[in-house]
Amino acid sequence: TFTFSLHCLSLLTCRQSVFTHLGHKSLIRHIETIEAENPYWLSMPYMSRRAGVRPPRGAQGRAFEALKAARTSKFPPHRFIADQLDHLNVTKKWA
């Protein structure tokens, strides 16, 4: 038998697992298969360049703008500190 410390895959037991030589070769073959497939999947982007640059301007865009306007209309108007403290600036003289 081949003893192999497998902490990542045996998270439930958190101890050393006994691996057979056949299991080790199978794991290596599986990892090599995944590594061979990676360039293929990375060569095909999920979105086109145009779709990645700008969101669609159709009905979804209009619906989002309507939703954004509805949410911002619920907010009270902005309050400025100059308006709040304007009553203190009556004469602007040191007395």
Automatic annotation (TrEMBL):
Entry-linked Pfam families: MRP-63
One GO cellular component term noted in the UniProt record for this chain: mitochondrial ribosome
GO molecular function per UniProt: structural constituent of ribosome
Organism superkingdom: Eukaryota
InterPro entries: Ribosomal_mL63 (IPR016576)
GO annotation terms (biological process): mitochondrial translation
Coiled coil ranges: none
Range of residues in the leader sequence: none
Name recorded for this polypeptide: Ribosomal protein 63, mitochondrial
Organism: Oryctolagus cuniculus
Organism phylogeny: Eukaryota, Metazoa, Chordata, Craniata, Vertebrata
